[in-house]
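::Amino acid chain::
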Amino acid sequence: TNSRSKEYFTSQFQDEGFRGIEIKDGILINQRRYALELVLKCGLAESKPTSTPLEQNHKLTSVEYYRQFDITDDDELEDMRIYQSLIGRLLYLAMTRPYISFAVQQLSQFMHALKRSHYNATIHVVRYIKRQPGLGLLMSSKKSGELVPFVMLTGLH
């Protein structure tokens, strides 16, 4: 039956480590719980969500660039573990949120030479996820010959 197969797949996902993925109405891969836990873990429960994954026209530069031009307005961060863990969590969320993939890929380039601005940009992505934590991918159980396009428009209210 449908409920038995749903229970089986849900238990398989949980057993295999796909934490936070829920299966409903066909297969809905939804990481709502995982996204909300990430928001809470970053201490952003009371913060305002952002409307874009990265700030518009924000330039992320390397530590080497700052050293070459003797720029000192952005601190280097010594402990990279928190940033690396956060990037790993965002990469995991990108499985069901392809629209954050570009931002996460850009931020992952700085994992070994980290500045405060990189960390702040990563927190900006988490605040963007906070805007709609329940988004996911649906593979409907309804048979249809229709192709349903999806467009994510940002900056519109």
